[in-house]
Amino acid sequence: MTDSATPSASPHWPEQRPERLIVVGVDAEQRASIVQEVAALAATMSAGLICAWVDSTQVIYGATLDGTRLITPLDPDQAASSSDAVREQVRQHLDGLLADSPVPWRLETAVGDIASGLTDVANEWDADIIAVGGRRPGFSGWMNEVIGGSIAGHLVHTQTRPVLVIPGTTKDD
């Protein structure tokens, strides 16, 4: 159910998929420590990392008979290229964060509700764990949680697989 524009021969992904997989929710403005901590965990588990970016500015509104999903932006004035630009920012962010990591990784894209999108990616790849960052610190993080709810909370209550929540702040903050 993902909409992956990642080439099948990603330079960071082996031909044979790793036996164990961790799906981690990512975005372009995410704290570096979240992805790096999950990558360190993946290394200790000899697991691969599926970095899942969910484009919440678009939704699936149906499917054709051949299974092709019909996707539309929530904002009718939004250009499709804006989602492509953000996806490219996410990919570049990950390239920088994981440049020295020995963990095989790839970027997958889903659309719609973030918790549902992460679930779809985890189901598609039969992941062992879903990892997400905790609430962002400060007023804006609090407002996001009040308005949209906690992604981690949604996942914890709906998943059959373990959910790992990486704190939104670190000791150095």
Automatic annotation (TrEMBL):
InterPro entries assigned = Rossmann-like_a/b/a_fold (IPR014729), UspA (IPR006016)
Q: Which SUPFAM superfamilies match?
A: Adenine nucleotide alpha hydrolases-like (SSF52402)
What positions does the domain UspA occupy?
22-167
Name-wise, this protein is Universal stress protein
Query: To which species is this protein native?
Result: Ornithinimicrobium faecis
